[in-house]
Amino acid sequence: MKKIFASAALVSVLAAAPAAFALSPSAIPETGTLSKAPVGSTVMIEGTNKFGDHFDNYFRVGENGELEFVDQVRQSND
Fold it and tell me: Among 10, 26, 38, 56, which is least packed by CB within 10 angstroms?
């Protein structure tokens, strides 16, 4: 019986682990379109999630001026 509980606990910990490294959607801002940035260029927008963590969000300018999400980097709280 203890083996079943230990196995269930291990599975739940492993299943939750990828969530710790997931992007923070609350730190990705709503974006519109750009008219003066060259197509294919990269734009960085700073964001803050609901817990106060700061992020640099990188977007690529698409053909129609819309921003396509590329990457997110969390900044240290120093």
Answer: 38
